[in-house]
Amino acid sequence: MVQAMINISKETNQILNIVKARHNLSDKSRAIDYVVLEYGSNLIEPELRPEFIEKMKSRQSEPTVEVRDFRKHFGMK
Prior knowledge:
Layout: H1 10-22, H2 28-44, H3 50-60, H4 70-73
Helix pairs in contact: 1-2
């Protein structure tokens, strides 16, 4: 575990106290972990838009093309 000394505002402190109480966490370190992991999960694995999912599902049924020479096929040098 990494230890860090941080400065937080009064408002941040109040929010951490609320998170700590709502989720029955033992200390503010756990509250910080919880908040960061909740926020981070959206950054790391964002939700896909429903229209994108539908588009990909429809593309699954399209025929595939065999490409022997990628550069030649797509006109690259």
